[in-house]
Structures are given as C-alpha cells and as structure tokens.
Amino acid sequence: MSIAITPIAGAFAGEVSGIDLTGPIATADVAAIEAGMDRHAVLVFRDQRFTDDQQRAFTRNFGALEQAPGGHVAKLNERRLPLDMQDAGNLDKDQRVFARDDRRRMFNLGNRLWHSDSSYRAVPAKYSLLSGRIVVARGGHTQFADMRAAYAALDADTRAEIADLVCEHSLMYSRGSLGFEVTGDEREMFQPVRQPLVRSHPVTGRKSLFLSAHAGGIVGWPVPEARAFLRDLMEHATQRRFVYSHVWQPYDLVMWDNRCAMHRVTRFDETQPRDMRRTTVAGTL
Amino acid sequence: MTLHAVPLHPVFVAEISGIDTTRPLSPDDAAAIEAALDAYAVLVFRDQRLTDDQQLAFSRAFGDLEETRGTGISKPGEQRLHPAFADVSNIGTDNTLLARDNRRRLYSLGNMLWHSDSSFKAIPAKYSILSGRVVASSGGATEFADMRAAYDALDERTKAGIDDLVCEHSLIYSRELLGFDDLSPEERATMQPVRQRLVRTHPGSGRQSLYLASHIGTIIGWPMPEARAFIRDLTEHATQPRFVYAHTWRPFDLVMWDNRATMHRVRRYDNAQPRDMRRTTVAGTEMTAPQAEPLAA
C-alpha cells in the first residue's frame, strides 16, 4: 500500500489512506505526512487501533513529546494518563465519567472554546495528535478553523493594524471567561506568556492569525478594547467557510498543526464515556 | 398619515415611511408602529431630525421611559443628556472625545457584545429608540439578530431542553467578559443579578424567542462553566448571518427595536471621530421569571 492524501470535500483538511500508523513508519511516509500537514494543516487517519505506546512512537516521528505539567488543574495523583499524554476525555482514574460538578470537568469545558494547544506556553505546540478510543454517539465533534485562510481574508487595513501586535495568553483567561475560579497556586502556574498575533509558518511561510481563547490582552492596549477586538477577529476566523467539523468514528486519529489551525470540541452528552488521548509534538520556537 | 413598511431582511426589519417622528403621533399611528414592531421587530425611519424633546415625546407614545440613573457607571453630574437618555456616544460632558483609556469608554465597549437592553433589570426594556445625530464614517454599524427566527430554527431536542431554564443577568457579567472589573462596591450593589427565562413568548405576536444577552452569567441550577459554554453555543446559533441585519447609519436615522424579540450590538469604529447616538428606552411592564428571595438583612 502506498500513502494517499485526499482533500475532504468542502474543507481544508485531508484524509490519509494507505498507511498503518501502529507499526514503524518509513522515512518517506513521514515526509509525505509532514508535507500533507504543511498543505492541509489537519489530517484524518481512519481505523488506527493504537496502544498508548504506539501513539507515542508515531508522534515522535515529528519531534519531541510535549510534557503536560502546568496545563491542567488535575493534581498529579488524579491523572489517568502519564504526563506525556493529555487526557481529552471525561473519565477519572477508575474509568468512571466525571460528576457534573467535578472541577476537572469544569476545567475541561474550556475545550469548547476555540483555541490553539499550548498557546499559553512560551514555546507553544507544533502538532497535536488525538486518538478517539471511545467516541460519543451524538455531538462531541472536533471543529478546526484554518487560520491561514482567515488571515488571507482580512482587509488590508486590518492586516496593517495587527502586523506587529503581541497578545498575552494564559489558561486564566480562557477559564475565566467561563467563570471557572482559579486558585492561588494555579494562578502562579498560569502566568501569561506573549505571542505575536500574526505568525508565519516555518515551512510554508504562510501567515496566519494566532488566536486562542487563552488570549486575554494585547500588549499596550486597554484590556476591554483588546478583548473586544480579539472577539471580532475570532468571529471572523471561525466563519463556516474556514471551518472543518470532524465527526468521530472509533479509532480515528486526527493530527493538526497548532501553528496554523485552531480547534474546539462541540457539546455532547457528558453522562456518556468519551475517551480521547492526545499526544503533542513540542514546538521549537 | 399612512405607514408603509418595506422589508430590509428575509426574516425581520422594515424601513418605514409615511411617519414624521418629530410631530405628535396620533393613537392610530402609534398602534400601527406597534403592529409593525410585532411583525418586524426592528424598524428604520430615515431622515428624522429630532430634537431631544421630540425624541422624548415620540418615545412616550409607547409607554413609560426608563431612567438611566442608577444603572451603569455614570454619576449624577457626569451625564451629558436628560436622564431618560442613554448616551451611546464617545463624547464627554465637555463635548470632547473620550480618551482611549477613559473609564466610560471602556465600560461602553460592552455594547460590542450581543445584548438585549436592560435584560439586567428585573423588568427588562420593551422598545429602544436610537437616534443617529453624528454617525461614524466607517464602522459603527448596529447589528440586530432575530431571536424568534433563532428559536424557531432550534432542533426539537434543544427546544425541549431549554424550555424551563432561567438565567441570571447582570452588567457585572458582560463587563467581566471584557476584563472590565474596575467597579466600586456601590456600583456592584446596583448590578446584582436578576432572573430571566431563556425562552419567552411575545405578548403581541405570540411568538417564542430565545432571550439571550452577554449579561447572562449562569443558568439557575447549572455549574457556571457549563452554563456559560452552553449560552455561548446558543448565542453563536442565534447570531448566524441568516438571522442578522447590519444597519449602516446615515445621519438622522431613527432605529426602533423590540428588545423582547431581538439582540443587538455595535461594531468597531474609529474612536478618533465623534459618534453621537442618543437612545430612549420604553420600559417593560412585567418580569419574565420570579426573582430570587431577597437576602435577609
């Protein structure tokens, strides 16, 4: 079999066929996948029955694994998965669905807001790879927004205005907007970092809007003015014409480039188990 | 006079001719305008060169007016206009433009969020009447969303799920969304949350609508983050382009809307240019939900 990448109808994402990701991958295939990522920003692989170790091994083809500390309010002894695997499901250590008012669940609701993974870290993430181990029957789609197309569609005045703007990103801001109360220790852990509002992709050179629900201010701007403007840009960037909505089947692996795509999960019935495991390729700059 | 209505949008909004709002309205004219609002929810009257007194007189034909004193952050003596006006301008009492970091300006940026006027009052507003005296040359459009059409377009499962929900509305919540938390204890005391049904029925048309606003901070009985995420989803649904009309202002446009059936917001504009918009507000007559028992003193 040889690898093939087909554009998904009406969307910027691509679907990859002809490859089993659970075993070793040929160098040429890794290169083909990277090239597909540079083009599509989001790639879908169907029916990849990963173990956690296989998912890690596949992920390492693209760089070092990002470690999770500082990214969640769950304490280390509460984690279901090790620190190099982010838990995007709704299960506790005993595989039971979180109670409705569980603080970890409240925190995870932040994933319903458009974001770019780890934009709150000084060195934000490169790729994220999300494996759907148990998917829900209704809702729980993952939506992606193409931030290159969103940038390209801005008018010239706006592009000039934002060219040199720098934003402050923190988990405090995204969680604060949902009324999630952050404790003193967490506040310390969630200190804001700075990110440019416009970034260029290191391979393709294409410019994109670097937005995220974690962005809570623009350096040098009054906070309310910055937030109102960021909301406007967010609304622009997440118009349907820039969005691909991924409807999960069991064992889908979806891989995206955080440097040029935002994503979010849509509402689902949280009394149903949903087991989604994410590995993250650390960024380098 | 005979009122003529020409629709400006597929689901709501009409431009009205045949009415001079600067002159006293006959009861028949007032009734015709009310009937048009029941149908269209937003009415646009062009070229209405109103004085403040004329705007007050026109507005009073539809009911008692809300007083703006005691809401928001303006103190007595800081208001540029008669207390029955909401000053939706970027101009200070000394007739100069508000500075970029002026507190009233930053507070008023909350108008860029979708809202329904006075949803933070136990008895929320009926109509708002906005007169464009000096309009922005670029930007500054007022957008309206038809909350009846938005309700109608919900799937049956969602309609059944929200039918009995009650939300808490407060100015504190909408301002918090923009990071404006510079409120004194006295201001906070005037902004205590009130309860509103999430689905309301219009007394004139009988139509149901989604009663949303950025002033919503939670849903009674729900964990706050879950409520906020859900309200965001509903707001995104309700403000899709197919439910939205963007009004580009001409000088002396008068736009009148029914807060019981619509949301609105202002779009960004150049703050270096004066924008003088004056709003009168016709008070509502009833609560949409029972209020919480007051706390014992």
Q: What's the arrangement of strands in the largest beta sheet of chain A? A: 1-2-3-13-5-15-4
Tell me the greatest interface.
Answer: A-B, 28 and 28 residues
The end-to-end distance of chain B, rounded to whole angstroms, is: 55 Å
Rg of chain A is 18 Å
Helix content of chain A: 10-25%
> Mean pLDDT across all residues of chain B, rounded?
95
Question: What's the helix-strand series of chain A?
Answer: EEHEHEHEEHHEHHEEEEHEEEE
- Structural class given helices, strands, pairing of chain A? alpha+beta
Q: Which runs of chain A of at least 5 residues are low in confidence (pLDDT < 50)?
A: none
DSSP strand (E) fraction of chain B?
Answer: 15-25%
| Shape call of chain B | globular
In whole angstroms, the N-to-C terminal distance of chain A is: 36 Å
Helix content of chain B: 10-25%
Query: Cα-atom Rg of chain B, whole angstroms?
Result: 18 Å
Question: Could you explain the architecture of this structure?
Answer:
The complex is a heterodimer of chains A (285) and B (297). Chain A has 285 residues and is an alpha+beta fold. Chain A is globular, with a radius of gyration of 18 Å. The mean pLDDT of chain A is 96. Helices cover 24% and strands 23% of the residues of chain A. Chain B is of the alpha+beta class and 297 residues long. The longest helix of chain B is centred in the last third of the chain and has 15 residues, at 224-238. Chain B is globular and about 50 Å long. The A-B interface holds A 100-101, 106-107, 109-110, 112-113, 175-180, 216-217, 222-229, 231-232, 266-267 and B 100-101, 106-107, 109-110, 112-113, 175-180, 217-218, 223-230, 232-233, 267-268.
